[in-house]
Amino acid sequence: MEDRIRLFRPTFGEAEKKALCDTIDSRWVGRGPRTIAFEERFADYIGTSYAVSLNSCTAALHLGLLCAEVEGQEVLTSTMTFVSSTEAILLAGGRPVFCDIEPDTLNISVEDMARKITPTTRAVVVTHYGGQSCDLDSLLELAADHGLSVIEDTAHGCGGSYQGRMLGSMGTTGCFSFQATKNMTTGEGGMLVTDDESIAQRVRKLRWCGITSPTWERFKVDHVQRGWMYDAEEVGWKYEMNDLAAALGLAQMDRLEACNERRRELMIRYREAFADVDDIDMLAARDYAVSSCYNAVVRLDDREGLYAHLDASGIDSNVHFYPNHLFRIFRPYTTHLPVAEREWQRILSIPLHPELTDGEQYRVIDAVRTFAQGESRKSVVAG
Questions:
Q1: Where does the pLDDT of residue 381 fall: very low under 50, low under 70, confident under 90, or very high at 90 and above?
Q2: CA 188 to the chain's CA centroid
Q3: Which of 227, 293, 342, 364 is in Cβ range 3.0-4.6 Å of 263 for a Cys bridge?
Q4: Where do the CATH 3.90.1150.10 domains begin and end in the chain?
């Protein structure tokens, strides 16, 4: 029996093993020199003045929204995102206002955003779904006209770009995820990037319980200040990244561009393979952007049938995402979003990761095409 084809899979090698072992041997595994090096390298890669490492993208979104001062204010957001993106708005004291999506990209609809801006709107959380950039020119212009902070949720977008600029670099803050399934991973982890020095300074403080001086700075050998001398200026959180995660992140950055290029090659092959299939289509690729190709999404009416067929064929698939406005926790903010409520029932993510072999991808393609041509539907009904 052939091995099961996984939806996502992290790419690791000897470099990652060595980075972790070297960090363990250093005996400093908390936030320290490797975390600082990771922040500096990531800021340079994204093209921002500052990068602050955190233990998740959720933490980055939370602190970015706190710095945007959204407490008691409305925050526009897409419903087609992971649930923690909207939970971060509530954590920061804001009120989520769900916007509908573009049917062919699943990104937030700027037109619906414009309709929902009120005098109490303070910010917008922009999710680049699947690594495909939103229409940022229109969105940023709208935000500027109304004095809104823009928080880029770039959890899917590491390595993607919009008109030559890296995703995450164009908003007030950009928030990245290094969770296990992402284009680069630290196991769990995140990063907030910004060009605003005051935001970077505050996030550094808030990520470590509001403490003004980090442990590494107080205890490194060439520092003259006594280790116990620090202050806590406001309530913060335990959101730090550690040097083990940062060491993994540095090694992952060495392979990020090659891994993303492999993702793009696989995505092109999927598009070509399904171009002549009437019942299957894929999300649009905009000319203004280069996608990081986090996930490959097919769209069809019989999503449940394809899911069952792929599962029986030894192929993983999943749905990204259940619209946030339909979750129980967000019922006080629920509204009717016709495009999202229609499209989420037609989408299915199929395997896409750098270690997906050509042979494995052809198995996926054959399974999808077979189902679309009706052969498996008949067998499912007969069964």
A1: very low
A2: 12
A3: 293
A4: 257-382
Token reading at 53:
């490492």
Tokens of 312: 């029986």
pLDDT one-digit tens code per residue, 294-316: 999 999 999 999 999 999 999 99
| CATH tag for 257-382 (out of 3.40.50.150, 3.40.50.2300, 3.90.1150.10, 2.120.10.30) | 3.90.1150.10
Confidence of residue 377 (pLDDT cuts 50, 70, 90): very low
Of residues 17, 18, 182, 238, which has the active-site annotation? Answer: 182
Position 382 scores a pLDDT of: 44
Q: What is the pLDDT of residues 65-99, one digit of tens each?
A: 999 999 999 999 999 999 999 999 999 999 999 99
Rounding to the nearest 10 degrees, give the CA dihedral for residues 37, 173, 127, 329: 100
Environment class of 104 (CB within 10 Å of its CB; exposed 0-12, middle 13-18, buried 19+):
middle
What's the rounded Cα separation, in Å, for the pair 290 and 27? 40
User: Contacts by 92-99 with C-beta closer than 8 Å and gap 24+?
Assistant: 92/62, 92/65, 92/66, 92/68, 94/65, 94/70, 94/122, 94/123, 95/333, 96/324, 96/330, 96/333, 97/121, 97/333, 98/323, 98/324, 98/325, 98/330, 98/333, 98/334, 98/335, 98/337, 99/337
Separation in Å, CA 118 to CA 64, 69, 73, 76, 121: 21, 16, 10, 10, 5
In the prediction, which pLDDT does 119 show?
98
Cα distances from 136 to residues 67, 106, 256, 310, in angstroms, run: 21, 14, 24, 35
Residues 6+ apart with CB under 8 A from 45: 166, 253
Alpha helices in the chain (DSSP H): 14-26, 33-46, 57-67, 83-91, 110-116, 136-145, 197-206, 215-219, 243-274, 303-312, 338-343, 358-372, 375-382
Of 111, 82, 118, 83, the C-alpha closest to 97 is: 118
Catalytic residue at 182? yes
Report whether CATH 3.90.950.20 matches the domain 14-253.
no
* φ/ψ (deg, to 5) at 362: -65, -35
> 331-334 long-range contacts, Cβ below 8 Å, gap at least 24?
333/95, 333/96, 333/97, 333/98, 334/98
